[in-house]
Protein 1
Amino acid sequence: MIKPRILLAEDHPVVRDALLTLLGELGEVVGAVGDGQALVEAAQLLKPDIIISDISMPKLNGLDATRALQICAPQSKVIILTAYKELAYVSLAFDAGARGFLLKRTALAAELPQALMHVLAGDRYIGLGVREEWVPVDGDRVPMQLSEM
C-alpha cells in the first residue's frame, strides 16, 4: 500500500512537532505550515492526498482555508484537528468541505490512523469526543466513527 502524502497545518510549534512524529508513521509528510494562507499555498504546490488542519490559525483560519482548498486543491482531502468540540464546528467544517473532524484531546495515536483510512476510502470521519451524533443539513446521516481496534 502506498503511503498517503500528508500536509500539516498547525500554528503551535510543540503540537506541530508532536503531530509530525505521529504523521510520519502514517504517511509521507510533505510539509508543515503555521497559518492558513501558507496552507493554501503549500497545498497547491505539494498536492497532498491528506491535509490535517487546525481551525484557529493566523492569517486565514482553517475553515476558510478548507473552503479555498476545495477550489485550488480539490484532490486533497481535509481532516480538521481542533480543540473545539461544539457541534457547530463540526457542521462548519463539513460545510467548508472537510472530510474528517477530530479533537486534539482524544487518543490521537489510535484515532488518527482510523480517520486517515476512512477519509482516504472516501468516507467522512467524526472523531471520538464529539458529544452527540451529527446530522448534516442535507439529511445524510454521518455517524461518529468509533475505533475498531
Protein 2
Amino acid sequence: MTDVRDEVANATATETRAEPRGDFIWYELITSDIAGAKSFYDAVVGWNIADKSDFPNDYRMIGRSDGKFAGGAMQITDDMAQHGAKPTWLGYILVADADQSVAAIEQAGGKTYMPAFDIPDVGRVAMVADPQGAAFYVMKPLPPQGDPNAKSDVFSPDAEQRVGWNELSTSDPAAARRFYGDQFGWGSEEFMDMGEMGQYRFLDHDGTRIGALCGVMPGQQPKWRFYFRVPSIAKAKETAEAKGGKIAMGPHQVPTGDWIIIGTDPQGAEFALVGRQ
C-alpha cells in the first residue's frame, strides 16, 4: 500500500476494543495493468476503480455503488517487478501496534517483506508472511478526523461488491490455525470434512465467521484468496470470460446455498466470486 491519505483513512478506521486486532480492514490489488484491471473488475463486480490517481504508483481507490470503497489498486512499478512482484490480491489485518505485530510474527516463524512504515494521515503498515509463506499486511490505522469510532466495512458476509469470505490455502493447516489464533485471536474449532482434501476449518473472529483455511491445492503455493460478492455467479462468469478472465473452478455450490467461482484476471491475479446462481 502506498501513500493513500484521507480516502483510505475513512475506510480503515480504528476500533474501540481495548486490544483491536484481527479484522480485515482493507484489500488491495497489485496489478501490471491498472487500466485493464479497471475494465475487468468494473464489469465483473460492479465497482468503479478510479480513472486516475494523485498518488504514487498510480494507486487508485476501488469505488462501490454506495459511494464507499472496496479497497485500492496499485500499478506494479519496474522496481517492484525486478524484486519479483506479480499481480495479486492482498488483505490488511488490523493490529494495535504494527511494530509489535511484526516482531511477534517473526518470532512465530513468519517473515517480513516490508518493515513497518508510516503513511501520513492513514496509519502504520507492514507487509509480512505467515510461517508457510502466505503474504498479508498488518496495519494500525489512524481514525478519520471527526469519527474516532468508525469501523471499516470492506468485509461483509452478505453485502455485494465487498469481500464476503477470506480463505487461506496453506501447506500446514494445523500450524496455520495456531499462528493466526495466537496473532489475531481467531477461532477455528468448527470444520467440514473434505475427504482426501482434509478439513476445511472455519475462521471466526469477534462473533463473525470471516472465512476458512484448508490445505493447499496441488501445484500451488500458500496464499490468501478473497471472494467478492456479486448478485449472479452465472452472469459474473460470463462477463469475466468475455473480458479476458480465465475460470479455473466452478460454478460450484457451497453449503450456504451460494455459488462460487475461482479464476484469474487478464493480468494474472487470482480472484474469486461468491453469489447466487
Protein 3
Amino acid sequence: MRCANPTLFVAGVATLAMAGVTSAVRPSLALNPEVELASHRAIYDLKLADSRGRRQLSAAQGRIVYDFSGSACEGYALQFRQVSEINSGEGKVALSDLQATTWEGGDGKSFRFNSQNRVNERVVDAVEGNAGRGGAGVAVTLSKPRQKNFDLDVKVAFPTEHMRRIIEAAVAGKTLLELPVYDGSETGEKVFSTLTVIGREIAPDEKKPDDAAADKAALAGLKRWPVNISYFEQGGNSGELTPVYSIGFELYENGISRALVLDYGDFVVSGVMSQLDLKDVAPCK
C-alpha cells in the first residue's frame, strides 16, 4: 500500500540493507491483466514501535482507513484517511489528519487526485489535479496549491499501477523492483524514486495471520510476501541515497496488505489491521 505523503514529522530513514538480494527487475509499461486487485475497506490501528532520534517521542498513535474499489475495466478509486497523534513529551502533542481521494485508470494512463493535510486543525497541504499518459510522457495539471502544468517522464508509474507491478514481480520470483512513482502528494510536483524489496513467499498454510485477515476465507488460499518500499528524492541512485521514508507490510497476491511498518527515520510506527471488509465488484466483460 502507499500511505500517500507522510502525515508524521518526517526526518529521513536509515539506508535499507540489501544483503541477500539476488535479482532485480526494471519492468516495461505493459500491465499484466492477470493481476486482479481486491476491492476492500481496511482499518489499521497505529502505535509507536520504536523511537531512535535525538528527541525521543513519548507516544504515537492513530488510525488509517483505506477504502479501495474498482477493476481494470472501470478504474480504481481510493478513499484514504490517516489520523496520527504525536506526543514529543513536555505536553507537546501534534494531531495530523490527512485525507486523500484518488482515481486511476485500469490501463495506468490516467490519474486524478485530491488531498488535504491538517496539523492541529490547520491546513498545511492541499493538492488537487490530474495526470495523463501520452506517447511522449505524462502531462500533469494542478489546480491546487496553485495552477500549474508540467510534464513527467513516460516511465513514471501511478500508485495502483505500482502495486500491480510489485505483485507481478513477486509472482515471477523477483526480489527487487525499481520504479519512479507519481502520486500527487506534498505539493503535487514531486516524483519519488522507489526501491521495493520482496521477501520469500509465505504459503497460504504458513504463518497464519493474527489480525482481521485471519477469518477471511477469501484470503485463506492466497500467497503473500513481505515487502518493503523505500521512497527516495528523485535525481540520484537509490542504492546510494538515504530514503525519505519506507513502508513495510505483508502483501497478498490480490493487493490487500497487513502488518504495516511505517519508518520515518527518527521513529517507527506499526499498523495492525483491526477491520477488513471485502467488496463485490462486477468482473470485466
Protein 4
Amino acid sequence: MNIEVKPRIKPPLDPDFLPASLWNRSYRAAVDATGNAQGLALALKRPSGSVSVFQTRVFPHTGEYVALNECYIERLLKFLLWQKGGYHVTVAGDPAIADYLRTVYSTTGARKFDYEFMGTKVYGHPMTFESMPFDPRLTSNESGSELGRHLDGCRIGFDLGGSDRKCSAVIDGEVVFTEEIVWDPYFETDPEYHFQGINDTLKRAAEKLPRVDAVGGSAAGVYVDNEVRVASLFRGVAPDDFERRVRRIFFDLQKLWDNIPFVVVNDGEVTALAASMSLEANGVLGISLGTSQAGGYVTPQGTITDWLNELAFVPIDYRPNAPVDEWSGDGGVGAQYFSQQAVARLLPSAGIDVPADMPFAERLSTTQALMAGGDDRARKIFETIGVYLGYAIAHYADFYDLQHALILGRVTSGEGGDIIIAKATEVLNAEFPELAKSIKLHQPDEKSKRHGQAVAAASLPSIV
C-alpha cells in the first residue's frame, strides 16, 4: 500500500519535493478510510516537569500497514522532539511502535544524533522510551512565561549567526545604531575567537551609547539560564575546551561588563519575540531564513514556552532521497530548504555557476544581486523556496496554534523575499484555503529584516 501525494504546485527547481503536510493528510485520510483507526499518543517530558502530548491515529500495526505507520510515527516524533523537546518519551498505543522508536532513536539507530542531542547534551538525562496502552485522556502539562519587551535605558542587543554578528544600540526603545560584522565561527577551534568576536560586537555598540545598562543576545542552539548547552556556532570547539571556556562564555562576558543585566536565549525565541513586537499580536510563529533556519513561537496568550522550536531540524520533505543536513545526518529537514544553504543547493539546478569554494553567504549575495538585475534563474530559486514555505507553514499549523507567521532573515532581503511570500501564499490558497483564511503571512520592513532580531534581543533583560 502506498500513500498517494500529488502537489498542485511544484517547486520549479525541485519537482520531486514531497510535502510532509500533504503526505500526513493523505495518510490520516487513508487511516480513517479503513474504519479501524487505532489511537496513538506521544508524550514528551522535560526536566522542568512539563509534558507535551500529541494525540493522533494510525493503521492497525500489522501486515502492509507496519511500514506506513513507522514512516508516519518516526517523522512525527522527529518533529515533536525539535519543536517541543524532551528526554523521556511515552508511547501510548501498540507496544511494537514503542519498540520501533526505541530502536531508531538509540546509539546505533538512524536517529543517533537526535538521541544524543535530546538526552545528555541538552537535558542531562539519557533519552528513554516507555510504552503504555492508548488513553485518550492524556493531556499536556505546559507553562508559559513572559520574555523581553523591556526597552527602558541604554541597551545593547546582539544576534550571533553563522556568517555574521549583528548588534544594535537602543536608547529608551529608539535604535541609534545597528551593524553587521562578518565572521566564520562554525569550525573555529579556539574558544577565544568566539569570546573576542562577541566582545568586539558589544564594544562597537557601546561606543554609540552614553552608558550600557543591559545586554541581551540571541544565538542558534540551546541555552538554559545563559549557559550554553549545545550550539552549532561552537561545533568546532573540542569537548574539553567547550566545558572550560564556552559553556559559561556569557557569564564571563557579563563579568567583563561589570555584571550588568545580561540575558542570552535561543535565536528562535527572539525571532518570535521580534515578530510579536513588530506585529503587536500574539499566536505568532517567527521563521528566520539565514545561515540556517530559526523559529520561535509566541502563544495566543503572549507567552514563551520552554519548547525548543528548532525548525532547522524539523522534517518538511518526506521523499526518501531528500537533501541531507550535514550536521544531523537527516534528510528533508528545514535547514536545507530555508537558509543560505538552500540557496547554495539550488544554484546548480538554476544553471548558475559559482566557484566551488565560495562561502554560502557570498553565494546568497550573488544570487540576490542577480535577482536585482532581473535574472530569471535567480527568480526560480526564490520561487522554489516560496513553494517549500507554503507547504511547510501548512505542516507547522498541525502543531502550532497559529494566526500569524513573520518571515524574516537575510535570505528574504530584497525582491527575493517578496517572491518567497507570494509563492507561499499561492500554495496556501491552492492547497489549504482554510489556512489561507486563518493565517496571515508578514514581512518586516527592510531594516527590521536584517536587524530586528538584535533589537528584540536588547529588550530581554529587565533593569532593576
